[in-house]
């Protein structure tokens, strides 16, 4: 009986997969095409973010592979409407349709992030300070541990708190600067802007170096 | 005036679409006039810090090596990762960690720091009407805030058990250099004056949606990582503190929220707030207008449990959104 049950279940599961396949692959195909070949007036994402979506540490361009899909859609929307100001990305995001944003976000969300951290040439003392900030915060300055919202490994929590482990240090630092200057204002409830404004330049350097020294952790569910 | 009088304005609210407006908190009560209230008297407020600031606990990097240091480290982990700690987790009957209500590993001023509590025990507590040791006080935290009755062990740790020794070693270590027997600046939560307007659960719901739901969820159930570790604690329902925990009191929750939440916007050590006094009270009332695990001091009915144990600023056995609270959740 047991073998038969398993066979029936397997058959059901398989038929279900077959039924789903066209929708999954259609989205992924459209997303993949945009990512690797670009679209009308849009250059391929991979030309800056890497063929595997691993980002570009030297240029400070973020890893997209394994990020939460809803988070990436929100970012494309924000880049298009200016609440996340970025002269390079604004025209690209603006020319993508709502569906294209979803397609490309889903494509990158499903890519496996690189196992090698972007890293950087950083003094051990700085890394140590970064680790303390990341895991415990600095309560004298009103800074909570980064991991209390972004997850214990910096893997991200749902669509509101992105994965920051394995992101290039320069990218993370640029974002902290953007929160500080107000050129990025798309955080839920102003939470990240508030934390960024409490960070000194030295602490920003230390904590971003720490997260860049970690391997990326894919952000899966939010519960 | 009796203690119950301050709760009566809540009763008789009929329209479930018009959540309770809690006029009861708009006037003050002289606690000394009433025997019942004296039993439930709120803790004395901590004084403001002098020019030397708050007590500075040692750095967590400087916990010594050796058996004492090992005990301190174990106590620290039991405090921040209560649900993962090999011993402490047996006594957790909900989804909370100690560090959820005592931020910064229990080391931050105005976030009920453990160095503030260490030197004022043994202490008489109205809550159970006798002198409590720190050991017993922590067991009380397990019973109420951690809902130990619903845990694997079925109750709090045994007196003088290893996990309680370790936690006390951690508290003692964090209080190094602090005077004994003094109400230290930064101890407990800084009380929030009752606002001018009445406390409103419905306004509190708006504050919650705007400021809290992104982390604690629309249904108050918190957020968890894929491995089950808690990221944001549940605020009501089976995973939350129970009806006997200090945090179910609206004044206590308002005081915690005011200088601690939202995380990263408020700053307890700098005593900076992100919410107004009114918002803190309103949202504290909204959060505590939901079911949570039953009061372990259950007296057989909501009415008698209310009468014996809830003569303070809470919504136990009050009707909000058409439901009389106090059924419990589990």
TrEMBL record, chain A:
> Where, in this chain's numbering, is heme c 1 bound?
45, 48-49, 89
One Gene Ontology molecular-function label: electron transfer activity
PROSITE patterns registered for this protein in UniProt = CYTC
Instruction: Tell me the keywords, alphabetical order.
Output: Heme, Iron, Metal-binding, Signal
Q: Where is the signal peptide?
A: 1-26
Q: Which Pfam families match?
A: Cytochrom_C (PF00034)
Q: InterPro entries, per this entry?
A: Cyt_c-like_dom (IPR009056), Cyt_c-like_dom_sf (IPR036909), Cytochrome_c4-like (IPR024167), Cytochrome_c_Oxidase_Subunit (IPR050597)
For the keyword Cell inner membrane, the answer is: no
Domain (Cytochrome c) spans 26-112, 125-215
- Which residues are listed for heme c 2 binding in this entry? 146, 149-150, 192
PTM: Binds 2 heme c groups covalently per subunit.
Pull one GO CC term from this UniProt entry: periplasmic space
Indicate what this protein is called per its UniProt record: Cytochrome c553
| Species | Marinobacter persicus
Lineage, please?
Bacteria, Pseudomonadati, Pseudomonadota, Gammaproteobacteria, Pseudomonadales
UniProtKB/TrEMBL annotation, chain B:
Entries under Gene3D superfamilies matching the protein: Cytochrome c-like domain
Q: Which stretches does the entry tag as region Disordered?
A: 46-67
Which PROSITE patterns does this one have?
Answer: CYTC
Q: Where is the Cytochrome c domain?
A: 199-291
A GO MF label: metal ion binding
Alphabetical keyword list: Heme, Iron, Metal-binding, Signal
Keyword Heme annotated: yes
Annotated signal sequence range: 1-31
Q: Is Metal-binding among the key words of this record?
A: yes
The name this protein goes by in its record: Thiosulfate dehydrogenase
Organism equals Marinobacter persicus
